[in-house]
Design goal:
- With about 325 residues, the protein is α+β, with helices and mostly antiparallel strands.
- It contains ten helices and six strands; from the N terminus they run H-E-E-H-H-H-H-E-H-H-E-H-E-E-H-H.
- Among the domains are: about 80 residues, no CATH class; about 120 residues, Chitinase A, domain 3 (Roll).
- A hairpin with a 2-residue loop joins strand 5 and strand 6.
- The longest helix is centred in the C-terminal third of the chain and has 31 residues.
- It starts with 19 loop residues before the first helix and ends in a 7-residue tail after the last helix.
- The relative contact order is 0.10.
């Protein structure tokens, strides 16, 4: 925790700490000859005829987390050396005329489009209304498996490489085999490749769609999920309660709900732009034009995201496909 500023003698109080970005900028400017009455130089280094500025260094530093004001000088020096190397590479690329290479031009254009699209998404997201205290409490109450009845799971996982037919056979075997050792012996006997691992994961690190399913599982139970390369077998070796109170959960819930509202705002604005734009699919893509499904509010809804790999199927648990140790 950051200690509260101490009260100074007399009526004056300690000034609020400046933002880290300003501290970094001030430290870098001071290191580049900014002291005295003269105007601070914005140049940090010269590489042949090109200049590297303090603004460039500060921009990179702002993208990095965990840098304290005390680390500003050392971090800025490291960033500067990387920028020097980058500038040398850029200059050499120019000498080789790589900026005229068709593949490089495509990459530059793709990067430009990505930056502009991200800037547009951030601008739209800025209009999202932050969640209220009631919104946060409602989400907390609606998700006990994440908070009030949160659990931390010790998991055993088998990533299995198998054909769809082998997965079906294994699915039938899961209910018969009563231990991890028995499953491993079966896989080896069938010459099915697999890798085993162990993990400790709290509820919030599970796929959101599977949190309730895990909450219903007891130690020793398992579930099998199909994957593009075969299947994943997840066994709950142990589970212990570790609840989180409303105040402790509040910052994470606020951020989650705000991010969700930003995504919703972006989806709605993109739907508006699609509706107003003249979009024509040509050639072999003419028959693949997506059909925009109308959402309850009349706007076009975005296609649902594909299910995350390893998402548990609650029906497997309800059918009692458990493995007892």
């Amino acid at each position: 925790m950051i200690p509260a500023p101490r009260r100074l003698a007399g009526p004056r109080r300690a000034a609020a700490a400046p933002p880290l970005a300003l501290v970094l900028a001030a430290a870098l400017l001071a290191g580049c000859g900014g002291g005295g009455a003269g105007k601070a130089s914005q140049t940090a280094a010269r590489v042949n005829k090109a200049e590297i500025t303090v603004h460039q260094i500060n921009f990179v530093l702002q993208q990095q987390r965990g840098i304290t004001p005390e680390q500003a000088d050392a971090a800025g020096a490291q960033v500067l050396q990387r920028l020097v190397d980058q500038e040398l590479a850029v200059q050499q690329a120019g000498e080789l005329r790589l900026d005229r290479d068709p593949r490089v031009l495509q990459m530059l254009e793709a990067a430009r489009r990505e930056v502009l699209a991200r800037a547009y998404a951030e601008r739209v997201g800025e209009a999202a209304t932050p969640p209220t205290a009631d919104d946060v409490q409602a989400y907390y109450d609606a998700n006990p498996a994440l908070f009030a009845r949160r659990r931390v799971y010790s998991l055993q996982e088998l990533a299995i490489e198998a054909t769809p037919e082998q997965v079906q056979q294994l699915r039938a075997k899961v209910g018969e085999l009563r231990s991890v050792d028995a499953i491993v012996a079966y896989l080896r006997g069938a010459s099915i490749r697999f890798t085993a691992s162990q993990a400790v994961r709290p509820a919030e690190q599970l796929p959101l769609a599977s949190v309730q399913a895990f909450a219903a599982m007891q130690p020793g139970q398992a579930v099998l999920n199909a994957t593009p390369r075969g299947a994943q077998l997840v066994i709950v070796a142990d589970a212990r309660d570790q609840p989180v109170g409303p105040e402790q959960a509040r910052p994470a819930i606020e951020q989650y709900l705000l991010n969700q509202r930003r995504r919703d705002a972006l989806t709605q604005d993109l739907a508006r732009l699609r509706a107003a734009a003249a979009i024509e699919y040509v050639g072999k893509f003419a028959d693949t034009a997506p059909a925009a499904a109308a959402a309850p509010d009349g706007t076009a809804s975005a296609a649902p995201a594909p299910a995350a790999a390893g998402t548990l199927d609650p029906s497997d648990i309800s059918k009692g496909r458990g493995i007892k140790r």
